[in-house]
Design brief:
Blueprint: H1 3-14, E1 23-24, H2 32-40, E2 66-67, H3 68-82, E3 83-85, E4 93-94, E5 99-100, H4 107-114, H5 120-128, E6 135-137, H6 145-163, H7 171-175, H8 203-216, E7 220-223, E8 228-236, H9 244-247, E9 269-272, H10 275-282, E10 291-300, E11 304-308, H11 324-340, H12 350-353, H13 355-367, E12 376-382, E13 390-394, E14 416-426
Parallel strand pairs: 11-12
Antiparallel strand pairs: 1-2, 3-6, 4-5, 7-11, 8-10, 9-13, 10-14, 12-13
Bound molecules: zinc ion.
Amino acid sequence: MGRAKEWMLEQEERGWYEGPDSSVCPDCFDDDVLSSFVREHADAFECDYCGNTSQDNGEDPGPIAAPFNAVMEVIAEGLFKEWNYADDEGIPYESAEGGYLAETVDRWDLVYDWVPVSNEKLQRDIAKRLPDQQFCERDFGSLGPAQSMAVDWESFCHVVKHRNRFVFIRPQSRMTASPPEQTNEAEPGVLDSFGPSELELAPEEILDTIGHIVESASLVRRVPAGTIFKRARVHSRKRMYRSAETLGTPPENKVRYPNRMSPSGIAMFYGALDGYTAVAETKTRRLTPEEIVTVAEFVSTKDFSAIDFSNLPRVPSLFSNSSRRERGAISFLHDFVQELSKPIRRNSREHTEYVPTQVVTEYFRYAFRPSSGEPVRGIYYPSSRVPNGVACVLFFDREACGVAPESAWTRPEQFLKLDVKSIARMRRRPAREKPPPPASQGSLFS
Ligand SMILES: [Zn+2]
């Protein structure tokens, strides 16, 4: 075999071809991992793609660009973690059917869709270094974790919306109520219980899987005593509301409409961390001249646990060391939360539309037990109406908000206390308070 041929085969085996050496700067990538790799390996003073030079970077001009071939190695490694040649994945090819019998992409689309760059020339150079083959997802036969969870979630939604809603716990699974498939090797690593599934999961298994993902992603947080929750109520101007009875969780018989996380008849405390969001979530249109909005603060009187969907971890880069299942699980969480915080619509479809999230909420409330062993008493979620606004639903009834119980014999646990001094009547939405600090883990909770 000739030298050149040998070289070609070697490069193909590796997955990419080395080319003439050029240098690239961190600004040419929209990916933290690639940009910081470039910074660490910079040895040139000019970027051959965007023309950035060290001089542009101010007083202390050090090298700013790294060898393209070095970065290309990281890019190829990342791509091949999740993608492979269609031929190597055993995808049948039928010329009569017009090609591969599965969805494949060529190298141009692969790079366009999966390598975040801010420079077209760079994008072309990356694609040109990949073999001219058709690519498909690695392990094509079994769906990747992200897709498999998406499929499972879709089937879950269908079941609870249209088939059976109230009893889907199978007797057998009740007997062996343990987390699905724990591989007890050393640490039960992040999201390890979340593997690709060959079979469609049963609804209760999907709930457990969501529970595991929530726990693995550390979304269960402690809400300290003294946390302020704002609640808004829109009402006639002729009325005056100043009590926990009228401003806290409504009485059960007044809960006529289903909400995104609770069906009609089940009362929960819907609120927000700031007044602007509380009003925006309560009243979507302008107030009529007869209406007024009262905003009140409820302060938590003791610590409790809640799930925080308002501040999800970012989906790890394809080029980081994160595992594929971790990326899949976190991207599922993002899709799920988007669903959870979709703007609510009153069009009679709400009676079925919100059933899946109502079931999940009920699961978190009654069946989910995080490792702390403490029950979860609420869910934080991003407001669909206010960017960076955080809304919440707390599983507190009227008594938990401080309303005296109807029977003198019960002594319910109180979690929230109305701060009467905070009550404000407004003709329009309150001014937007300073938004909370940019999303960083644990900013909402201490
Ligand atoms: Zn550049």
